[in-house]
Amino acid sequence: MNLRIRRQCLLGLMAGMMMGVFGSVAMAQPADPAYGVWKLNLAKSKYSPGPAPKEATVTVEAAGPGRKVTVKAVGGDGTTLNWGYSGNFDGKDIRVTGDNPDADVVILKRLSPSTTRSTWKKGDKRTLVNGISVSADGKTLTVAQQGVNAKGQTVKNTQVFDKQ
User: Fold this and answer.
1) CB atoms within 10 A of CB 3
2) pLDDT > 60? residue 70
3) Angle, CA 145 vertex, CA 62 and CA 85 arms, to 5°
4) 36 Cβ contact partners less than 8 Å away, ≥ 6 residues apart
5) Which of 23, 106, 116, 131 is the most exposed place for a label (fewest CB within 10 A)?
6) What is the mean pLDDT of residues 135-157?
7) What's the rounded Cα separation, in Å, for the pair 158 and 156?
8) 22: confidence class by pLDDT, cuts 50, 70, 90
9) Quick one: what percent of the chain has pLDDT higher than 70?
10) Angle at 154 between CA 98 and CA 97, to 5 degrees
């Protein structure tokens, strides 16, 4: 075999190996288990203080290394709430868009593959902290929420969402 053919074979073999290595790394990173559409299960949720919302749907999508979250809800008083954010798990402030009464900024932190923490702020003041976890079977998303809302009320909620 001449030198040129050997070199081409060697380069082809190396390129194939590199594609295999990088492809397997990309495939080894599982999708965020929170991705999907989640509907609030009022029967399993607890709100203090009330009233509980009448309904809520949360959509979680991929956004680079982070996520995009869209919330559509009807409050206990009948007001419609639509808000969301898009950002990474890098501890930096992420602007909340829409009409979230308790926050204009959120900070995300990943604690494990199925657990995250979101810290909410209104102005420069921390309001709520959410511990968010997805069940092992991927069918339930639970939000343990505590802090002080924008009205100054102490909040301790457990919100349970079912995957749609």
Assistant:
1) 7
2) yes
3) 30
4) 59, 60, 163, 164
5) 23
6) 97
7) 7
8) very low
9) 82
10) 10
Per-residue pLDDT of 1-20, as tens digits, reads 555 555 554 445 444 444 44
Task: Say yes or no to pLDDT of 140 above 90.
Answer: yes
Q: Which amino acid is at 156?
A: K
| CB atoms inside a 10 Å sphere around CB 87 | 22
**What distance in Å separates the CA atoms of residue 132 and residue 148, rounded to the nearest whole number?**
18
Nearest to 49 by CA among 68, 76, 19, 67: 76
Concatenate the DSSP letters of all residues of the chain into one string. Answer: --HHHHHHHHHHHHHHHHHHHHHHHHHHSPPPTT-EEEEE-TTT-B-SSSPPPSEEEEEEEEETTEEEEEEEEE-TTS-EEEEEEEE-SSS--EEPEE--TT-SEEEEEEEETTEEEEEEEETTEEEEEEEEEE-TTSSEEEEEEEEE-TTS-EEEEEEEEEE-
Own/partner contacts of 104-108, CB < 8 Å, gap of 24 or more, are 108/66, 108/67
Structure tokens at 116: 């995250």
- Can you give the pTM of this predicted structure? 0.81
